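Field: COMPLEX_INPUT
Field: COMPONENT_COUNT = two
Field: RESIDUE_TOTAL = 276
Field: MODE = joint
Values follow.
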Amino acid sequence: MSFDAELDAKGLNCPLPILRAKKAINELSSGQVLKIVATDPGSVKDFEAFCKQTGNELMSSAEAGGAYEFMIKKS
Amino acid sequence: MTKRLSAKERRITIIDVAKRLFAQSGFHGVSIDEIVKEVGVSPAILYRHFSSKDELYEAVLHEFSCTRESYVEAVVVDDTSFEPVLRSMTRVFVNSIVNHPDLLKMEMHSQLEGSNASREFFLNRWKSFTDYIEFNLEELDNQGLIELRNVKAAALMYQGMIREVLLLKCLQTTDQFNDMSIDELVNQLIELFLKMIAIKK
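Field: COMPLEX_OUTPUT
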């Protein structure tokens, strides 16, 4: 899946990944995709809640080797 | 005669009772026997839900861990600069304890008893805070907006401040700040903290 910007949030605890994702999404234009990699297991629920509240689309959420990868499309 | 509880209801009742007893006497201070006696069931029924006291303790902690979504709410605001987010995160954290003082009692017990799982749980709760403060102060420092020598110590100071207010307001019946609500006291301490770090405008 292609993306327009990438955010490394590994090692960060809630709410830092969310805050940084919010900043990164602000710099995108509508329809562009941000890829986020995080290690906090709670980030799965956090990004679901984040997208629900901001109206951005959570295109995918996957786990691999202890890291969590999210694709968020700016609304 | 009491109504027969469904498995789900029974589980909730066991967790509620365990929460109260763990808060009162700590993990080691409570036996499975006391818990089942208080719930009014046989040990076999408890073990049907939880294989050990450790598992039950973890389930109690899990019950408390549901404040994360409100953190998301606290940071999804228009102004994400340091001060407003710090204030809203603090409000979420303080409220999570005000609404569940048992959590603070369990934390105090865990500090003395030192089961690894519980220590890690409570450490992580504070870590959301201290990480946020450290990360942002470092950023402000890099931008030349503050002149702090030790960002980690500043984060620890904030944690100590909030913890002391919680101990004072949630565990003691009277204190020297009786005329002040917990929110007012927290706000005044945040003012002092912000004065100390002195962010240049």
